[in-house]
Amino acid sequence: MEKEPKRLLFGATPLVFLLLITLLYTQLFASNSLPFDKWMQQLANWKVSGNKFNKAVQYQESFKPILRRLVKGEDQNKLETDGFACDSDYYSMVCVASEPSLRIDTRTLTVQMLLNKTALQDKTATIRPYAWQHSSEILKNTTPVQILHRNIASLPACQYIHTVPAVIFSSSGFRGNLFHEFDEVIIPLFITSRHFQSNVQFILSDYNPEFVNRYAQIISHLSHYKVMNPATNGSAHCFPAGAVIGLKFHDFLSINISSNINPGSYSMLNFKQFLREAYNLKEIHVDKKRPKLLLISRVKSRKFLNEEEMVNTMEELGFTVLIARPNQMSNLTEFSKLVSSCSVMVGAHGAGLTNELFLPVGAAVVQVVPLGLEWASAFYFGKPAGNMGVNYLEYKIQPEESSLIDVYSRNDPVIVDPQSIFAKSYEAGRAVYITGQNLKIDIPRFRKTLTEARLLLGLDS
Q1: Any idea which architecture 292-456 has in CATH?
Q2: Going by DSSP bridges, is the β-strand pair 236-238/160-161 parallel, antiparallel, or unpaired?
């Protein structure tokens, strides 16, 4: 007889279970024993039979102002009247739905909602939810999301109800490249979802478990809930609180605080603070007695051929030198702590310099600029550094410091006119300057740049 109540509880119908949950809700709030945000977290994924989402709709109004921020101008009015609008620019496209009938069918990767009353027939739109919309090469490998406006009879029955909005995005781009993953996925995800204060369900199309594991601490600080993999979660989900399809991109490793999407306004300094919280990084200040210098060491291309001489010079100038090998950088949890303890970071142009995100405010980054990579060096890492509160210096190599001088004559276009090589095709330029070049640094000249870094840190004032 003692086991009978358990059978009754776990064999209860969904309606009975919902009534039990409602009773528990009343008791918990009556005693003030559970905060409202925790209650939402526990009820964000109701499994139901039919379209019983009235309870979830009560949360919709609180999310509307946040969804409205993701579009601008006339599109805000369109979102209000039609329940759907898209914001697009050169780099990105973000579509926002606030229609309470919203369904996301992960079996077909479709977003479905009621047909606008003024429309005469079903309407269809398609978006590939990657932050770089200008890159056809990336987009062709990004699974499209179809957005369907349908009549009520055509909408699928909900199998799950969510009390928070959804954000659908893809990590289909340059997988495994730290710069591109932060630039086109992580920072855009922060821009797009931070205003939801973790009350958001991520749906990752082109699901990549390595990506999810690598950035687990960041993702878990942006959402209370496990990332949904459409390939293994074939169901019809109701999102009466709304949905966002795609991510907003501002600029390379940057957040534009003047954008309408960020009236809050989040900045790169806010993002750095967010990273400190996510990785539990301590606030580090410059050690003026023996400051730490982190040297990003490359092994395949753009590697320093006289690295030992560089290290000796750094130590002569009073730095404690730490050398970061590529295998060390794969564990962001540990490597972020190492970077945050350093006052200076030095490296040749490449993805490893993305770790300037973890440098403490007031630190310095020295980018060694290889031949032919001046533009990418300036816009990918140089320009963003200032918005991160990091001092930036660059050391542009001379032709004699490039291994290319051993292959081409001093007057060859490869040496004197790199743009003419890139003009042939990006792949032609990449083969020469990105994958085919190593560096032998002029130590006396480089010493002057390191001395300047000491001055920026206030070590020789």
Answers
A1: 3-Layer(aba) Sandwich (3.40)
A2: parallel
